[in-house]
Design a protein that fits this description.
Length: 326
């Protein structure tokens, strides 16, 4: 649908970035366009307590557009439902971020890389509409905005950007610069440059001299007794031992007859199959599990199988243990 929103006045300059991002997605992704304009409206309403006529006209036009768009796309869950919307925007921002980061690390620079980093940062801003960002999302937002500005300035000044994150001094690590292996020695071994192995395979003992003859040589026996023991004497001694009491074996040959009454009964788990153990969840935990399922469904819309699997695993762990893996 055509966008009939008055121009943004200079006093609302801070929301122009979101309005521009929205206009770029009107045809490509109406969900992104809708939430970008809604975020712009929320930010614009908080800028000043007393609005000028130009500001009021522009914000009212934005409200009208949002209402019409919500009615037009009432069947689109990512517009009518905040949980689905958050999942849609998170996956979209992450997909842009991963694309830009891959191009950056492959040193394939251009306006598309800058645009992808920049737009990803804007979408992460929009995600604050639903609450505080996760630590990972906050780090991605900060890095995306910095990387977009950094690559843009490098290309503008004719410089070659450095791929990936930079260290604090902008240089590589000490190990790369010096060539020194900073890895520890394997456990149980210590390198000794002065050690030379003995040719025989044994280390020399400084106090041992193989040429020295011991003062008292060992005595070798020269006489042996030729008398063998009398077997009859052993038999006579055995006959004088007391008799061994005999107890007949109730199960000759080791066979034990089957007795059902003596068989142990297997213990039954309290909830049937152990694999179906569930935790007692609070309403917030149930809502978070629903979010994971929504995010997985949204990821499948972009053929992002890995993200869908991770979200489903998170939902399963939360439902079974009550622990949120995020």
């Amino acid at each position: 649908m055509p966008v009939n929103i008055p121009d943004c006045p200079p006093s609302l300059k801070s929301i122009q970035h979101y309005l521009k991002t929205a206009s770029e997605h009107d045809a490509r992704d109406p969900v992104v366009a809708y939430w970008c304009r809604l975020h712009a409206l929320q930010v614009g309403m908080k800028l000043t307590n007393k609005k000028t006529p130009e500001e009021t006209k522009m914000l009212m036009g934005l409200m009208d557009w949002l209402e019409e768009e919500k009615t037009t796309h009432k069947d689109n869950e990512a517009i009518s439902n905040e949980v689905a919307a958050q999942a849609h925007l998170e996956n979209y921002a992450l997909k842009l971020f991963m694309y830009a980061d891959k191009q950056d690390r492959e040193q394939s620079y251009g306006k598309n890389v800058v645009k992808a980093f920049y737009t990803s940062g804007m979408i992460y801003d929009v995600l604050t509409t639903f609450g505080e960002l996760t630590d990972e999302a906050a780090q991605n937002r900060k890095y995306a905005k910095w990387k977009a500005a950094y690559i843009h300035n490098c290309l503008k000044n004719g410089e070659t950007p450095v791929p990936g994150p930079l260290t604090e001094d902008g240089e590589t690590s000490n190990e790369e610069n010096t060539g020194i292996n900073t890895q520890p020695e394997p456990m149980g071994f210590t390198s000794n440059p002065g050690f030379q192995p003995d040719p025989t395979g044994f280390a020399q003992n400084p106090g041992f001299n193989p040429q020295v003859t011991p003062a008292t040589p060992p005595v070798i026996p020269t006489s042996f007794s030729s008398t063998l023991p009398d077997p009859n004497a052993a038999m006579r001694a055995a006959s004088q031992l007391p008799p061994v009491p005999y107890t007949p074996d109730p199960n000759p040959g080791g066979f034990v007859p089957y007795d059902p009454s003596q068989q142990s009964q297997p213990s039954q788990p309290p909830y049937g199959d152990n694999s179906m153990m569930v935790a007692q969840l609070s309403p917030d935990q149930i809502a978070k599990a629903q979010k994971y399922c929504k995010w997985a469904s949204s990821a499948l819309n972009y053929d992002d199988i890995k993200t869908a699997i991770n979200n489903l695993k998170n939902a399963l762990e939360l439902l079974q243990t009550g622990r949120d893996p995020a």
